[in-house]
Amino acid sequence: MRPSPHLLAALLAAAPPLYAAGRLDAPKAIPGPSPFPGYHLAESVPIFHDVRCIPAPYFLNDTLDPLPNPFGTPFLSLADAAGAVQAAIDSWNDIPSSFIDLQVVGTYGNLELFSTFDTVNEITFRAFGGGIATSPSVTLAADMTLVAGTDIDGDGDSDVAAGIETCADVDGDGDVERPEGFYEAGTILDNDVWFNPILIRWTVDPAAADDITRSIDLESVAAHELGHSVGIAHSLVNVLAPDDGSSPTMNPRADPGDPPSELGRRSLEAVDVAFAALAYPEGTAASGPGALQEGDVAFDDAYGLISGEIRHGVLDHPVAGASVTAVDRLTGRVVAATYSGSSARFYSDPPGFDVIPLPGLESILDGRYELPVPDGLYEVRIEAMDDFPVPGFFVSYSTWIGYLLGILDFPEEAWDLDREGPVEATPGHATPLRIHPGELATGIDLVTDRVTAIENFGSFDTLLFEDAPPGSYYAVRIPGAQVLAAAGGEPFAVYSAEFFTYVLDNSAPPLFAEAMLTTGRALPDGTAEIDLDEPLARVSPFLAQELDFAPLHFPNAVGLGAAIENGIAAGGIDSLFLVLRVPTEAPFPGFHGFAPVIGIDGPVFGGNDVPVFGLSYRSLDRETFVQDGWNYMFRLLLSERP
Question: Structural domain of residue 401, as residue ranges?
């Protein structure tokens, strides 16, 4: 049977191709009228390949051979490109604790510039426009029982067949029919993987990796896009450990100008693997793909689960869009990451990528999260999915909802058992969790902290000082009167200092020699006198972050606040200074040997949203701090005293 256009719109939804770690989500229609004509009310559900369509069949578009080369003569054959894509597929298929299985079963002569919804999972190099690559999915937008003869894609041909138990091309016309039966919302009906051969020169030989940003290793990008194909979202994690600046394959900020970073995306990290295992867990069925076979490892033998809820400490409401990570207590390595919350919204008919939230905060249904972790001792940490390093709309619909509603405005912190609350005496302290495979740790709930930010800068404009000399310093002055004014005359604790940082070679950790909060004063000649020998707090070395604010928490926030308040009142403290020091030895880590850099607000491109306040200083010799013509993006966070 051929559905009406209205039924077709109700059945299908487009999962975000680039807002695609955790799971990608898609709308599940909620019955009832909508106040917006042409829109449906829906809740968000994870997307996935139904077990009856695993192995998931994919077809390689064979209409371009060799692939175009935007820099000159074509050199990459379709066979070599297919080999790189197959290697990326194998990286997901070979996860012992996951039963996901993608298989290239044939070729497809589709001459469309972009593949369309036709119930054929297509891998194509005919994406002549847009970005580098993407992996759009069309999913079922309601729980439904599909019967033989149903034409899902509206092309006049049945997409559901009787008498079969697994997906197959029953009628031999090149597309795949599904078995009759019940299917959940979020089921992937069509996934395509697009690679742009006009914008990018694709390479497959590791020796061809270079620092030309439009020349990219195909296998590394394919591994990322195929993660979206199985339903895995972007990961916010961009530094895996203090001694490892590499990122998970599913991090969206690939660096094609840094060959070690580029090639490193070929290999899945623990953060990537964990959610493939959670979405398709081995050992959860007596037969079929989920049944244990030779070489498989049952999910419960490989992972335990940490679960809880994130609530907003000011609004007393669940948070959708908190990035939640599990960090190995002994090594500092991130092993799992996800996002909190589920959401509801209005989505358009026909489906698009527009979002209309419900009134107030009603779109946020809960702030739940679940982290799969291997055997180990962990700290659970949260961070807001704000504009840095990527905005909330770049991950999933639920993080997008949190971003649109302005609820992603809280500082980073760690779970601290019974000390959790909106006001904490030791915000940087983390209570470790011992997790064994097969265990479920519930109630690991976090409440975001209430803080006041002192930030003498406007919007982010640029990054500077990749050529900084070893051992040089950056400092931002915060006048004592500004500290007292921010506290509003009330006793305060010093929650943290935050430094906006980045490293231009993504394979290198953004490591600075030290970060500190100290005292000093401005001098009439435009320089500053800063106490570097006896700071109020210091961390050395200091692991920063990539395109984000890196926090320096203080172990005694209350005592530090009292000491500063008393020092300012007594005249002993004129100003506070936030100080960051460049590593003392060159060459700096990374392919290009650049120094780690800092975020700048200032007169870029002929204008600025705030004045240059004259509170930023730089020193090349540790002795003389000279006032700079920029606003460095360093800030101090105050909180109430518990």
Answer: 303-447
